[in-house]
Specification:
Blueprint lengths: L1 H19 L8 H23 L3 H28 L14 H18 L9 H15 L3
Helix pairs in contact: 1-4, 1-5, 2-3, 2-4, 3-5
Amino acid sequence: MKASKMMLGLLVVLMIVGGVACGGGGKYASAKALMGKQISIINRYADAMDKANNAQDVVAALNAYATDTKDLIPDLKKFQEQFPEMNDQAEAPAELKPEMDKMQEAMGRMMTASMKAAQYMQDPAVQAAQKKLGEAMAGMK
């Protein structure tokens, strides 16, 4: 169940970034930068999980992802406050399509890589790292 909650949290982050990015033009150039940061964070996590061979590796990947996510949240919130209208748009403009495609690819990699953690979920250190990630994700609320 914890893995499901983590996936839900990650999807919420994707939806928020996607919603935030739905502007386009020069006015929303910061959306591209913000999406680029999120994509890099997701890819670093997926890479780390792909390389994980034991519970300690999974813990390190989860903790790094939690820290990166927590560090990104103020930027996401600032952008949401600056452009609240972005939350209601259903589709990104054409000029952001490349970023949205990269984001979807990164999310797919992340979800696949996260399944590797399932085999270590009984480890207390992995559970603690999952909790830390959940707390970081909760900061989006």
